[in-house]
Write a structure and sequence with these properties.
Blueprint lengths: L4 H35 L3 H11 L18 H19 L2 H12 L11
Length: 115
Amino acid sequence: MRRSTHHLGGTLMRRQKLVITIAALVIAAGAAVAVWMMVRPSYDDMVKDCQKSLTSSATKTHRPEACKGLKQDDYDTLLMAWTLKHALKEMPQDDQDMLDYYDDGSVNGSLTDGE
C-alpha cells in the first residue's frame, strides 16, 4: 500500500510549524532574560544605595528597603562602618585627632572621610 504524499506533507508542515514556534519562544525567552539582566541594578549599585540609606534607625534586623538584597555579612559590615563613623563624630575633637593620628601617622580626617 502506498502512502499518500498529501498526508506526509501535512505532517511535515505541522512539524515545521512546531519547530518554528518552539524556536521563537526560546528566542523570546532569551531576549527577555537579556533585558532583565541589563535593567536590574548590579550588586555594587545595591551596596551604594544601601550606604546612602543607612540612618540611626537601621539595625541588624531592621534594614532599610535599599539594603534588603544585600548578603547579611555585607550589610553587617556597612552598618558597622556607618555606626563607627557616626560614633567618631560624637567624640571630642582631641580624641578624634588622637585616633586619626594613630590611624596613619597624621591628623588628616582619614577616619571620618575628611568630614
